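Researcher: I'm preparing a figure for a lab meeting and need a structural model of a single chain. I don't have an experimental structure, so a prediction will have to do for now. The sequence is pasted below. Please return the structure as tokens so I can convert it later.
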Amino acid sequence: MSDAPELHKDIDAPTGVETTGHEWDGLKELNNPAPRWWLIVWMLTIVWAIGYWVVYPSWPTLSGHTKGIAGWTQYDKLKREQAEITQRQSGWLGKFHKASFAEIKQDPVLFEFARAGGEVVFKENCAACHGAGGEGRRGYPNLNDDDWLFGGTAEDIYNTINVGSHSTHPNTHAVAMPAFGAVMGREGMLTPAQIDDVATYVSYLRQPVASAAFTRGQAVFQQNCVSCHGEGGIGNRQMGAPRLNDAIWLYGGDKATLVQTITKGRAGVMPSWQSRMSDDSRRQVAIYVHSLGGGE
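Model: Understood. Here is the structure written out token by token.
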């Protein structure tokens, strides 16, 4: 006879299933086998994993990794996808290249193609100055409003992109506001008192006030400023002179900034993009900027 103690199986009374011997607070774990469907799925995943290791690159090696019998790489996949995109894009670019701005606007699909392409080019080349959404900042125009120095049609915007402002392009927009005050030892065209008066006049153009400074400033404005900025400060696009009777200011509309602008003058600079990007890209940017909300 064997001296080994007899092993007694613990059977769960309600189910008649043997337990594993684990018990928590009176709850016993039944020794049920895993479901057959679960075992089948588990074995299939093992087979699938082995097949994947054979077909695709997977295991690291001293020289890199296993290549797999399919020879698949993410770089080849990227090249194929880029080739498909380029092929589709070339068809739309052909249509876009031949269409005028008016024809593009009348074709919703072609317009959206141009606008989407222009947005990409804008963010890569123009957002640094004009902001990601064309909102601008001090010294850099807001492209979302309807205040345009040189015109806000798609054609006007395209021309400005081409020639720039105070750029090296032979046809650049070259309008600048002169300095009316004494600068670097040069005698000013206006005295400090006259500059202060005309700054007062301009700051109250939207809501004229009855004051001696406003009246004096109006007289100075008529003699020195109206030829560019127009009667009542309505602006002049032929001259590139901004409106002064609205709330849109490139450098600031408070009196201190106006005094500085009148005294020292302003001459904003925008480079010519004609030699920096393709004609199609420039036209796409013009369409995108025109679509921001302020285009005419």
